[in-house]
Amino acid sequence: MSEGLLLALLAAVLFGVVDLTAARVSRAIGTGLTLAALMGVSVVVLVPIVAVTEPAPVMQEDLVRFIAFGGTFAIAYLALVQALRLGPITVVGPITSSIGAATALLAILVLGERPTTWQLVGIGTAAAGSVFAGVVPGERARTFRIAGPGVLFAVVNVFTAAVVVLSLEQLAATRWAGPILLLRGFAGLWLLAAAIPARWRPPAALKDLPNKHKWALAAVFIAVLDTLGMVALSLSFRTAPAWLVGLIAGISPAIVTVGGVLLLGERLGPRQALGLALLGVSLVVLALTG
C-alpha cells in the first residue's frame, strides 16, 4: 500500500473517532458550540505550523477560491455535525460513507477522469448502499420513509464534502498546512456571518449541564484529531489520486456506525445492514480497481 493510501487510511480512522465523539458532544453542548470548537481550535493549532513551514503569501486568485471553498467547507461541517446530533448514527454513518463515490463522480464530471467499468460498478454499489441505509419501511405496505431527521443533513454533507476533498486536492498541490488553515478560517467566518443575523445563542440547557469541563475537553480533543486528520488527508494527495483518497477516507463512517451500536445503544436494521454491506463491497471493488 502506498504512502498516500496509508495517510488516507489514517485520516479515515481519525475522522471516525471525531465523528463518533462529536455525535455525543453536539448532543450535550449543541451544534453551534461544537462547530466553534472545531474551527477555533484548528486555527490555533495550525497558525504556528504554517508560520514555521509555509510562510509564503497567498496569491489573490487563490484567496478568492479559499473564500468560496471555505463556504462549502462550512456547509459540509454544519451538515455533518447536525446529522450526527439528530441521528440515528446507524443510518447517518453509512450514508456519509458514500462521500468516496460522490468524490469519484465529481472527479469524472469536473476533472474529466475516465473510470473503468468496474469502478463504475463500485460507484453504483455505493449509491445503492446509501439508499438502503437511508430508508426504512413506512407505516403502510410497500411505502418507505426517511430513516431519521439526520438523513437529509447527511446527504448534504456527502456532496459538499466531496467538493471539499477535490478543492483541497487542488489547493494543496504545493502546500499542505496553509490550505487547511485558510479553509478552516474562512469556514469559521462564514459560520459566524450566518450566526449573527440568526441571533444564535448557546442552548439554554447548557447552564445546567453537569461536568462542563469534561465536554469542553472533549470538544478540544475532537478538534485536534480532526485537524490531524485533515493534515493526513492533505498530504495523501501527493502520492494518490483525489478520488481514491476520498474513497479510502470515506470508510470512517463505518467506525461511527459500529460505535453507534456499541456505545449509544442504537440498533442496526436489516436494510441498514444491507446498505452498509453494499458500501463495503463498493470500497473493495474501487480499491482493487483503482
Description:
By secondary structure, this protein is mainly α. The protein has one domain. The protein is built from twelve helices and two strands, in the order ααααααββαααααα. The chain has helices at 3-29, 31-53, 60-86, 89-96, 99-111, 117-134, 151-171, 178-195, 212-236, 242-249, 252-262, 270-289, and strands spanning 135-137, 144-146. The protein has a two-stranded antiparallel ribbon with strand order 1-2. A hairpin with a 6-residue loop joins β1 (135-137) and β2. α4 runs antiparallel to α6. The chain is globular and about 50 Å long.
Summarize the amount of helix as a percent range: over 70%
Number of helices: 12
Q: Round the Cα radius of gyration to an integer and report it.
A: 19 Å
User: Can you count the beta strands?
Assistant: 2
Which stretches are low in confidence, meaning pLDDT under 50 for 5 or more residues running? 136-146
Q: What sort of overall outline do the alpha carbons produce when their principal axes are compared?
A: globular
Distance between the termini: 12 Å
SSE topology string:
HHHHHHEEHHHHHH
Per DSSP, what share of the residues sits in E-state strands of 2 or more residues?
A: under 5%
User: How many independent structural domains?
Assistant: 1
Could you give the order of strands across the largest sheet? 1-2
Backbone structural class? mainly alpha
Mean pLDDT: 75
The largest pleated sheet is described as: 2 strands, antiparallel
